[in-house]
Sequence to fold (581 residues):
Amino acid sequence: MPTSPSDPAAGYDLAVIGAGPAGLAAAVTAADLGLRCALLDAGPRTGGQYYRHPAPGLGATRPGRLHHGWRRYTALAARLAAHTLAGRVDHLAEHHVWTAERAGGWLLHATVGPAAERRASVRARAVLLATGAYERQLPFPGWTLPGVVTAGGAQAMLKSGLVLPGRRIVLAGSGPLLLAAASSLVGAGAEVPVVAEAADYLGYARRPGVPAAVPGKLAEGAVHAAALLRHRVRLLRRTAVVEAHGTDRVTGVTLARLDRDWRPLPGTGRRIACDALAVGHGLLPQIELATELGAETRRTPDGAFALRVDARQRTSLPGLWAAGETCGVGGADLALAEGELAAYAVAGRSPAAGLTGRRARLRAFAELMAAAHRPGPGWPGWLRPDTEVCRCEEVTAGRIGEAVDALGAGDARTVKLLTRAGMGWCQGRMCGSAVACLAGGPAAGPDSRPLAVPVPLGQLGRFGQPAGPGRSAGPQR
Amino acid sequence: MRRTPAALVRAEPQPAHTIEFDGRPVPALPGQSIAAALWAEGILAWRTTRVGGRPRGAFCGIGVCFDCLATVNGRPNQRTCLLPAGPGDTVTTQEGHGRADLAV
Ligand code: FES
Fold:
């Protein structure tokens, strides 16, 4: 059944897209300050990927044991519940926002439900984009085998469904998420023989004052490190998975040492048996909604694109704000601070004392972290011609190489048109950064996608028509 | 006590119900996604690719990669990592483009 605001003039003061740390902090702070808010989120429950937690039917009596800083979430959730009850915030769960239109203020269009079976539109004076990030993947031979999953995915399935992909799970890739994922997987009973980090952590040592200014970050790292030690997990640096083995599912992996540029060192390969492999090479800000509208971006030190925001979280577009990972990946503490800052700014108030400085210190750490884990230029050294790069369209490294060498494609866009890499279901979210790199260096700008999430054709066809009577998604005053 | 995900969070789940995967009964706990219920049974693949016919299952676990597509209650192309498992749901391996019955 379609839903839409029955009165187009009605609208919220602020629509927050994403109910993770940044969006939650923003919505409750904005409501504290007297704004009427809509909190739209793709998930059935608030928390986003970071505070993802089991469905109520699973009866988790200690969900906090899957999390770092769980109490901050429960405090935010309690504030949200009070605001929802008082009618100051509408939490619109399972709303996948696929486009935003300027219409005086903003008009957001969303599909509703896990199978996108309904639609909704929401009007608001200001919009805050807090959509978080998804994982960056670098392909390697065998990465499409069942049992190879993303590190974030392994964690997500554990946090929400209380399941593991296997018993003996190797973790590999780069970035702090690997350690966090490893410590939750071992806590949940998995055997994790190895965590292979492709970077060397020396990046952090270059500016020792920056991590020292954010003691919380060091403590978090120490907690994970202690869990790994306790469970005898070996952490190998400058090491990558260069192949996953198996026919119908993964049965083992080959690890190899890398040089400074992430080129595998010949003769260093060794095979390890496992029944699952969780991989990820850091996170990429999820910013399609804003870039489609023309918002300015910046290149982060790990080569990703993030939204450019000012000291008060304003993007380059009037009335559009951003917080958390969309402004550059930096973790939950930073997202909470930025969400709060944005709410103050949208409300036209000056922020609580100390908030700006806290954000600056955490942002500095985030930039250092991004630089430390930036993928090295030599990673294509572990590809083979038959390695699939684009999982959806099954396009191999060989075909991409052909498009570049024989057909003269000089950028990701041309490679895409010639090979269909990045044109499948996921719209390049899994292979985009790898394809760009193989096409001769990172793209000049962020990927362009007219639709931020998949939309059934039937709903697109009705775009622009009134959605008919139904539950109003606007505020009812 | 053996370490398990359920033990970690001291889960006291509601009783399991049953879904059907390629004709075989699979238990699912209330609130679990279809992908999670399949993982819990050690099932990792429930789709074959269009070109190579190779097996795939859940990869990203959060609705981004589309590797976890399956036919659920006759509807193809359903992202099983997002879809909660309902009592009696029938899940079948999705072959190729998933439009065998043109029910898009
Ligand atoms: S596992 Fe990626 S969309 Fe379901």
User: Anything to note?
Assistant: Strands of chain B lie at 17-21, 24-28, 47-48, 55-56, 69-72, 75-79, 90-92. The longest strand of chain B covers residues 17-21. The longest helix of chain B spans residues 34-40.
